[in-house]
Every structure is written in structure tokens, then in C-alpha cells.
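Explain this one:

_____
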Amino acid sequence: MNVKSILLLIAASISVVATSCGPTKAKPDSPKEEPKTAPVEGPKLVGRVASVPAEKKFILIQSYGAWEGEPGQILTTRGPENRTANLKITGEKLGEFAAADIQSGLVEVGDAVYFQHVPKPVTTPSPPETLQPLGETPVENVQKNN
């Protein structure tokens, strides 16, 4: 073998070794933490319209099971022929019945009532700011030369 062949063989060997020892994808020490958000769920059937008092702007809902809705949250109804309405939970409950105010739409006894849970965003408290009274400037230690 001549010198050129030997050098070519050495260069090829080095390139093979270098590529096999190259950087590999390192496994992260800890998984990246992504913001935790609840999966968005579709509306849940929670009951039916049990009564609609005449000349009143509220209804009574007969619950199909336990569900937690806070006063002020919105419910939707669906009736025959795609009739819909929006209701606002009042917070008044008695046994399996709950009251809701009619916000919009037409409601009739027997209409399905749906609830969609919307999770509240998680807020982290920010550190308190140091406020200075108006008109005052901070006093600095100034060395005087006498």
C-alpha cells in the first residue's frame, strides 16, 4: 500500500468513528412542564325544564344527577325544532330542583338543560410592589467633604 491509500484509509476510519460518536439526542432530566389546562369538554346534559311559571322570567330545572354550577354561570336548553334558550343559574336549590333565570330564547317544559364547565384560569400571585408616597423622593446617603 502506498502512503495515499493509507492516509485515505485513516481519514475514512476517523470519519466513521467521528460520526458514530457524534452528538446524540440527550434525554431530558425532567419533562418540560407545560401549563396545566383542563381538557375542554362538551356540554353535559344535567336535567330538564320542570316548570315555567306564567309571566315569570325564571324556570325550575329537575336535575338528572349531581352537578355543580355556581350562581351566574350560563346553562343552555334545547327543545324540539331546534328551539334554544340561555339560562343563568340563580343558586337556589331544593332537593333535585334548581332555579335559573331566562336570559334569552324560548323555554318549554321538558326541554333538555345542558351545562358546560368552563374552568377558571389559574392565577399566580405577583409579588407586592413597593410604593412610595407621592411628592417624596428617596433620601440617599451622601458623604460630605468638609
